[in-house]
Structure formats: structure tokens, C-alpha cells
Amino acid sequence: MTDADTRDEEIVAERSQRAQDAAEAGYDDSAPYGYLKDGVTPRKKPGPSKGTPKPSAPRTAAPKPTRKAGPRAKASAATPDYREAVAGLLQIPAFILASAGRLNPVLEYDGIAVAVATPNIAEAVNSLAEQEPRVAAVLDKILTVGPYGALLGALVPLAAQIAVNHKKIPAGTMGTLEPEALKAGLLGEAG
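^ that's the sequence the OP posted. Answer follows.
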């Protein structure tokens, strides 16, 4: 026999001696932690010692609010009106195309076409959003641009009017006026 075989036999003998000692001492697989003082009830698995923090419970999301049933539910879940927001969004390409008309006159006509079609497109998109919640969800994501969206919506018509004043785009694009009409309207309101 080799030294390795001798060591293996020693390990096996030692393990079987331990198992025999445990059996003589009353070790039972059904009570790995021993028995209580009554000698019948097995001890439970030891828990954390006193003073150690308990493991935190897994985090769960807050429960979703339940929806009310009945006629009130439909009234409170009404789809917002997207017409104004969609029209404001369409002002951007109309302005860009009308401005690019200085380089290519066809683009100016495209910008005017977008501006003329904007009310009908906004109405159609709004109607679709009322029927399809998925469309409404997409619009909510697109139109939720925070305060920058409102600022952009206010600046685009101003930029368009300035472009008309400098004869960069034609009057009437996106509700712009001829410079003389703008002046007359302002003087008429002031007087």
C-alpha cells in the first residue's frame, strides 16, 4: 500500500468513529441541534444572536390605486385635449421649412402646407388619442418635455414673426402678420 491509500483509510476510519460516537451520544438526524430539556422536542435552528440587526424585508412597490367603477370613473379618466400641443409641435417643422424657403422656394411651400394642415392634423391626432390609449400614452411621453416645451412653444411664433418682419418668410406662416398690420394692431390696442 502507498502512503495515499493509508491516509484514505485513516480518514474513513476517523469518520466512521465520529459517526459511531454521535450515535452513542444520542445524535439523531431528525434533531440535528439536539433536544429541549424534555428530551422529546427537537431544538429549532438557532437564529441570530441578540443585538444583531434583523435582515430587512425585500422592498416591494406600493400597491397600485384601485380604479372606481361606474360613471364617475369615466369622467375622472377623461383623455386630455392634445390639439393645442400637437399644433404647437407642428409649428417647429413649419417654421424650419418656411425659413429654408430662402434657399429653396419649394421648401417654403412645404412649410406653408404644414401650417395650413396643422389644425386638421391636430384634430385627427386628438380623436385617435381618445380612441386608442396607446396613442395617448405616446403623446404624453412626446409632449412631456417640461418647461422647455412651453418656452419653445412661446418662442417659435415670435421667431416666425421676426422672420416675417425681416422678409425671410412670407406673412401668414404660422399666424404671422405683415409688419404694417402688426404695427397697426399694436397702435389700435394702445389707442
